[in-house]
Amino acid sequence: MNKRLYKLMDWAFIEEVIYSECSHPQDLLGPHAKGQTTLLQAYFPGSDSVVVKWKDRGEPGKPCETKMEVADDDGFYAQLLPTRDPGAYTYVVTYEKRLEDGKTLKKKVLRCGDPYRHKNIIKDSDIARFVEGTCVDADSILGAHVMTLDEEDGTLFAVYAPAAMRVSVVGDFNSWDGRTHQMCKRGESGIFELFVPGVSEGEKYQFEIKFRNYEIHRSADPYAACVSADNEMISVVSGEKTAKVTPLSNSKKKLKETPISVFQADPYSYVGEGSSAFARMDKELVSYVKECGYTHVSIGNILSSSRKSSDKILSYFAVDTRLGTSEEFASLVNDLHQAGIGVILDWVPSYFASEEGGLSGYDGTGLYEHIDPRQGYAADIDACLFNYSSNTVCNFLLSSGSRLVTKYGLDGIRVYGTARMLYLDYSKTEWVPNIYGGNENIDAVAFLKKFNTEMAKKFPGLLLVAEDSSLHQGITDPVSDNGLGFDLKWNEVFYDDYRSFIGYDPLYRGRNLHILPDSFTYAFVENYILPFSGREKTSEIGQFADLLTGDDDSKKAQLRLSLGFLFAHPGKKLVGMDTHAGDSKLMAALNELYRKEPALYKNESDPECFEWLSNMNGDQSCISFVRKTDDPEDMLVMVVNFSGIEQDFRTGVPYEGKYKEIFTTDDKAYGGTSSVSRTVRKATDKRLDGRTQSISVKIRPQSMIIMKFIPYTEEELEKVIEQRIRNYTPIKKSKK
Q1: Which of the 8 DSSP states describes residue 410?
Q2: CA nearest 643: which of 557, 519, 517, 543?
Q3: Burial grade of 677 (CB within 10 A; 0-12, 13-18, 19 or more)
Q4: What residues contact 378, with CB distance under 8 A and at least 6 apart?
């Protein structure tokens, strides 16, 4: 090595790179101007020689290639070029012998670009947005992005790991050697970046991170758009574009006056041999949901998740390969939209998988979770809890939610595990109170407000649904009124209360009739969706049918009754795969009735839409109530028989007039034993349930009937008045 070259080299810096402890290798490697010359340095561990080749210098007298001098036998090379502008070039690296997996391999020649020729690729303005926590598209900055720089094709890798001593990108393209592609830290931002020429779509990779305690860990890319089918912790370079999904009309428009009926589908239940889960859903689900008349489908988590539990997410931007590809899911959403069915997708910002190689302890610290296990770990589910006070977490989760909606044209997002987010002591024996000494997670509240505000601004028609089992106030109140800003709240208490009641033998339901009115008491506190599904709790409490007593016919009758009760109860509707009747005729009839009758959906969160008639008749185990609007002619009277025998039941009614049966869950068309009665019942003057008028109905065991109010015509009213006068007024009789 000539003396001038030797003097120009920073040997301490070189040692830092060779020992793979460098966070700014771009200051050493690649081309650097030295007066009128350029110092070119490269590091290829284990190589024997490196030649620099220029693509086309186009200048006579200048060489097309130059052999670099060996500066260190470990594979460090240097060369002083007699120009300030070396132009575009590639390296030809020769390995005479090399070791891989304990085997000695023969000579290998590698042609590659110089990753350190391109510097500061991510814009400073984007880095500033990320650091401030206002970056809702962080996935466009971090992760792996296929691009072309200076006519050179490759992939830009970027990751946030502020506490790391060194970060490298490893993959098949460098034999998974963390010494080769050490990444460049952008100032104090904590972001590492590196453009690797020649890396294209489909390449597998990980980030190798050297912690401050000198431990080396390989982790998946938090922002990876694709993961390996063989190992979820290995990311895959994706060149995918945003899928073209035909959007539906605004589902949120006049939400309180719109019937919303949702079928909940678990994508993992469609996993099987042959076609993918998404393809099977496309084939089986779309036609069924359309036939049943649902307005929406709620689909469980589709993001790459732990093998232990499908709701413990490993990658917040990549589809789970067990279910299929992102293109297949986009096709499913598009076909549902073509059928006029909206799509609500589960999203879990409350906790994440604790597996090594994922987000947990990413850079040797609690980057995504609280470092204190009392705040950052949920022992009951073996998962890590997000630290919502961190700008990193806000960027990450906002970008994930936004990306899902944009990419797949979603109509709604169900935020799963909201209660766990809102309370610091949720399912914990040891916990850390907030600054006021309370158990509310103030940072989580602030994040949810920010998330809902940003999503509503970016996607005005998006339904924001909270899966929340807590008593936290203002879940569906506007953020401007100090609410959380959700559109709908998952009313799990309704389902739990109803399960508790219907699980009693019919003989004992009368004495437990007091359980039912509770759900009507709080039905108007929030804008609710009623989840008639135990998908999340099936492993704990079993299927809905397991609760029911009696033979198969009795169980089917109780299931029909339960679904009818759901549609009669105030609130948007959701039916899960574990509770649907199987017979699409019943569901189609209920959904048609729901859309047809304004009393069943208008102002569902307004207590004026509901009125009890009878809820204390424990002897007969029967209840009756009214659903109504401002127009009396919309009024419906519901009568429900929870007993195991047929009942002659009398109930008070709000108005004098006629009551015509329009629906019964016991109809033969749905597997029952009777049909809708053609008898039009006239209210009589018998006082009952605090009403001056009442009617009598015969109702089959474990069934529900719905009657529509029909006012008297003028002619009928005159006859009723005349009859009443005759009944209560003495008439003078002429004497002979």
Answers
A1: -
A2: 557
A3: middle
A4: 351, 384, 385, 420, 426, 427, 428
Identity of residue 76: F
CA pair distance 429, 317, nearest whole angstrom: 33
* Closest to 387 (Cα-Cα) out of 402, 373, 404: 373
Candidates 158, 223, 143; CA nearest to 189 is 158
Burial degree of 723 (CB within 10 A; 0-12, 13-18, 19+): exposed
Cβ burial of 652 (10 Å; 0-12, 13-18, 19+) is buried
Q: How far is CA 283 from CA 265, 280, 336, 533, 580, in A?
A: 14, 5, 11, 23, 19
Which of 131, 171, 160 has the alpha carbon at shortest distance from 222? 160
Q: Which tokens hold the place of 388?
A: 């919502």
- Quick: pLDDT tens for 254-275: 788 899 999 999 999 999 888 8
What is the rounded CA–CA span in Å between residue 206 and residue 176? Answer: 8
Alpha carbon separation from 723 to 140, 684, 685 (Å, rounded): 78, 12, 12
Q: Of 264, 274, 273, 270, which is closest to residue 282 (Cα–Cα)?
A: 270
Q: Which residue has the tokens 């994706």?
A: 238
- Beta pairing, strands 658-664 & 680-682: antiparallel
Identify whether the C-beta of residue 602 lies closer than 8 Å to the C-beta of residue 610.
no
State the pairing for strand pair 463-466/610-617.
unpaired
* Size of the chain in residues: 736
Ranges of the chain whose pLDDT falls below 70: 1, 56-63, 98-102, 240-244, 246-247, 249-253, 534-542, 579-582, 735-736
Tally Cβ neighbours within 10 Å of residue 408: 21
pLDDT at 240: 64
The 3-state DSSP class for residue 37 equals strand
Structural contact between residues 288 and 584, judged by C-beta atoms closer than 8 angstroms: yes
Domains of the chain as residue ranges with CATH: 3-113 (2.60.40), 124-236 (2.60.40.10), 255-600 (3.20.20.80)
463 and 411 Cβ atoms separated by less than 8 Å? yes
* pTM (whole model) above 0.90: yes
Burial class (CB in 10 A: 0-12, 13-18, 19+), 451: buried
- Phi, psi angle pair for 558, to nearest 5°: -65, -35
Rounded to 10 degrees, the C-alpha dihedral 688/692/696/699 comes to -60
Q: Which amino acid is at 246?
A: T
In the prediction, which pLDDT does 538 show? 43
Rounded Cα distance between 300 and 303, Å, is 9
> Crossing angle for the helix pair 552-568 and 584-596, nearest 10 degrees?
20
In this prediction, what percent of the chain has a pLDDT beyond 90?
74
Query: H helices then E strands: how many in the chain?
Result: 15, 37
Neighbours of 449 (CB within 10 A): 16
- φ, ψ for residue 519 (rounded to 5)? -65, -25
